[in-house]
Amino acid sequence: MHRLSFRPILRFSFCLLVLCGLTYVLSAKPAYPPIIEGAQVETYKVAGEMELRLWIFNPEGHKPDDKTPAIVFFFGGGWNGGSPSHFARQSQYLASRGMVAAVADYRVKSRNGVPVKVCLEDAKSAVRWIRANAERLGIDPNHIAAGGGSAGGHLAAATAAVQDFDNAEEDSRVSSRPNALVLFNPVAVVGPVDGVSELDIFKSKHSHQRAGTDPVKLSPYHQAKEDMPPTILFHGTADETVPYVAAELFNQKLHDLGVRCELVTYDGAGHSFFNGPKYYEDTISKMDTFLVSIGYLEKQ
Fold first, then answer.
1. How far apart are CA 75 and CA 77, in angstroms?
2. Helices (H), 23-163
């Protein structure tokens, strides 16, 4: 049973992230566009004059006629900035374990002036492109996971939960929905929830402008159905950008729908904890165990 003993509104600053598109500040801002060593670079979409790319890490000895499970990661940054290099380490690790792993670029507000719904369109295009090119890339089209952190975690979850906002020019016969989710402190709740007053801020006009639509239409929590894929969700209890209560709500929603979801809690951890030295190895280990359990990796 979910407890309605929530933190004060000042700690629910992820609402401001959604409404204002604030840049997710890293201690050292990555270069853009990034140079990611050891990756195969592919263009998955052309939007105006911009080429949107994937950086793909392949397992050693990988061949086009393989049928290997894959994952695509989406970076965080408040849908305002950020770099695809954000999940390069996780991708390199998974490639070393036998998966094809990619990090994806997508349009954001600071570089491209787009609302959140366009970020989601690009994320869906990336999943669809990987599936459409699975045979050439040596990927099993029925074993494609999506992952990400913060706003990128929202995009990964939304590719599975949200039915709309696909690119109308793409082949809708090729699904843009992933078969599994690996989420790190995702913005999984984008809209008001009955009885949760901290989320009423999403009723404001500005939230609609930033999202480009009713935020509820982009919300994994609100749009989740019984056919959601198996999910692992990492979150820290001291996260002041995407508070832990959002993870609890999303986890409970998936359980209520009969969907497998593992909520991995880190007591006292803040936002983007998973790339820090204290937690990186443990999140990698638990991600590995989850992917083994659903048949994406071989047991070590």
1. 7
2. 88-96, 109-112, 116-132, 134-137, 151-161
Q: CA 205, 211, 215, 219: dihedral to nearest 10 degrees?
A: -160
**In DSSP terms, which residues pair with 45 in a beta bridge?**
52
Strands (E), 14-138: 40-47, 50-57, 68-74, 100-104
Task: Show the CA angle centred on residue 139, arms to residues 44 and 66, nearest 5°.
Answer: 135
Residue 148 main-chain phi, psi, to 5 deg: 170, 175
Question: What is the rounded average pLDDT of the residues 78-85?
Answer: 95
Burial tier of 298 (Cβ tally within 10 Å: 0-12, 13-18, 19+): exposed
Q: At what angle do helices 116-132 and 151-161 cross, to 10 degrees?
A: 60
Q: What's the pLDDT score for residue 25?
A: 39
Using CA atoms, how far residue 118 sits from 78, 94, 123, 210, 300, in Å, is 13, 28, 9, 11, 39
Residues 219 and 267 sit within 8 Å (Cβ to Cβ): no
Mean pLDDT score across all residues of the chain? 90
Output the DSSP codes for 119-159. HHHHHHHHHHHHHHTHHHHTEEEEEEEEEEETHHHHHHHHH
Burial 171-186 (b: 16+ CB within 10 A, else e): eeeebbbbbbbbbbbb
Name the pLDDT band for 30 (thresholds 50, 70, 90).
low
What's the one-letter identity of residue 283? T
Q: Output the six-digit token pair for 224.
A: 């989740």
pTM of the model: 0.90
Q: Decide: 259 and 230 in contact? Cβ < 8 Å.
A: yes
pLDDT tens per residue, range 120-141: 999 999 999 999 999 999 999 9
Element spanning 291, H or E: helix 280-293
